[in-house]
Amino acid sequence: MTDGPLDIRRLTYADLPQLIVIERRAFPTPWSLAMFVLELSKPASVCLAALRADEMIGFLICSRYDRVWHVMNVAVDPDRRRQGIASAMLGELLRRIDAPDARFTLEVRESNTGAIELYERFGFRAAGRRRRYYQDNGEDAVIMWRTPSTLAGRLDDVPNASPA
Q1: What is the DSSP string of 76-127?
Q2: Consecutive H or E run containing 19
Q3: How far apart are CA 160 and CA 155, in angstroms?
Q4: Within this chain, do residues 62 and 125 fall inside the same structural domain, yes or no?
Q5: How many angstroms separate the Cα of 147 from the Cα of each of 45, 80, 94, 112, 119?
Q6: pLDDT of 53-103, one tens digit each?
Q7: Which range marks the domain in which residue 86 is found?
């Protein structure tokens, strides 16, 4: 159920209390407050909040390392999933980093097929694994990339690409 238009704006320090509530509900091993403060303080980060009726219902954290953007955290309140919120945030991220040669990477649980399908819709492609990446259960992470090549269906500009 939706309750009004979705507003996506820059995440601020004032959003941290609401963000922590969503993070703890969304993930078995949530980030600490200090981790979020660090990401918000980086000048080369894009941190977005998704709101409906002034209530935060999701957020996205993306940081640039050298020439690669790393999507660090995408979370939607569990009661609000499957409403296009993560899609809207990813779309806004790509709009804000409007560069034809932009390169993005992320890790996602191999069991999170919904998230993998979402990322694939935005041009991300599986290009490897991080064995036992998740501390709570030792699950592998799928490494995904979005590059000029992945948008053309290839992996030739992805470092160390291997079948996932």
Answers
A1: E-GGGTTSSHHHHHHHHHHHHS--TT-EEEEEEETT-HHHHHHHHHTT-EEE
A2: helix 16-26
A3: 9
A4: no
A5: 18, 29, 12, 22, 12
A6: 889 999 999 999 888 999 999 999 988 888 899 999 999 999 999 888 899
A7: 1-98
